[in-house]
């Protein structure tokens, strides 16, 4: 299994396609390496041996990082808007 971001983007795309075709509640997911349908409770793909636990953990960490990035961006934007309002208030008074 590759560790590059390109490989990770491909496996995320495969997962999105699978969810559209089979639905999230089907109990199956596409293996990121070979594309075979495997149980969501499997630790390894029975077809190619891909470590599915690693892939799921990586997806979880990427999603968590994305949420943290959005919150951080909102705080920074809010701070700058507050500073602009304070600055304009001082200029007008």
Describe the structure.
This protein is mainly alpha-helical and 93 residues long. It is rod-shaped and about 70 Å long. It has a two-stranded antiparallel ribbon with strand order 1-2. The chain has 2 helices and 2 strands, in the order H-E-E-H. The N and C termini lie far apart (63 Å). It has helices spanning 5-22, 52-92; strands at residues 28-30, 37-39.
Task: List strands and helices in order, with pairings.
Blueprint: H1 5-22, E1 28-30, E2 37-39, H2 52-92
What descriptors fit this protein?
two-stranded antiparallel ribbon; rod-shaped; mainly alpha; 93 residues
How many strands in all? 2
* SS field, number of helical segments: 2
- Provide mean pLDDT, rounded: 80
Q: What is the straight-line distance between the termini?
A: 63 Å
Q: How would you classify the helix and strand content by structural class?
A: mainly alpha
Summarize the structure.
With about 90 residues, the chain is mainly alpha-helical. The protein has two helices and two strands, in the order H-E-E-H.
């Amino acid at each position: 299994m590759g560790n590059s971001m390109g490989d990770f983007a491909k496996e995320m795309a495969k997962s999105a396609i699978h969810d559209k075709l089979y639905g999230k509640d089907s109990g199956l997911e596409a293996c990121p390496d070979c594309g075979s349908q495997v149980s969501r409770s499997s630790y390894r793909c029975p077809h190619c041996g891909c470590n599915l636990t690693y892939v799921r953990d990586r997806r979880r960490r990427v999603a968590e990082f994305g949420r943290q990035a959005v919150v951080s961006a909102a705080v920074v934007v809010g701070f700058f808007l507050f500073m602009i309002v304070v600055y304009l208030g001082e200029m007008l008074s």
